[in-house]
Design brief:
Strand order of the largest sheet: 3-4-9-8
Structural class: alpha+beta
Distance between the termini: 50 Å
Number of domains: 2
Strand content: 25-35%
Helix content: 10-25%
CATH architecture of the largest domain: Sandwich
Shape: globular
Order of helices and strands: HHEEEEEEEEEE
Number of helices: 2
Radius of gyration: 19 Å
Amino acid sequence: MNGRRDDDWDDIFNDMYDEFGLDMRKINKEIARFWESIMKDDSNSKIMGPYVYGFSYKVGPDGKPVFQEFGNVPRNSIGQRNESQEGYREPLTDLNEDKENVYITYELPGVDKKDIDLIVNENNIELKVDKGSRKYYKNIEFNTGVDIDSVIAKFTNGVLDITIKKLNSKNGGRAVRID
């Protein structure tokens, strides 16, 4: 690691994270490389601070770790981001499912429900908020078809909760009314 020894932090947590199948040294290197690229004076960068970047980690229903990134930073080294999404933040998002439904929760602080555009079709859900400095964008691809007529969306105190029934047949997309 750049010619330096692992520090006590690495010693303490590496054994714990090995149980989950994560290599914390690799994650730390990726995060460090990511921030180094952000801090360089890059005249091609279109996003001006503040920069938001983070990740959530949980154990999925299959017992495997799920690692999800969010933020408004360019993803040249971590993943690809569409040019049309420049300047948007990814909201912190939680995605769960059971046999019958898909459950999605978006955290959208400072947003009014009238400012949320939510489109659901059989393959994905797309959320977009473009209100002043509150700009969020997230597109989630479904692993299974969903019944777009069964979508329930509730927005309370900056948290948007969505429930969608799973379906095997194909339908067209529709805009979703948020209660």
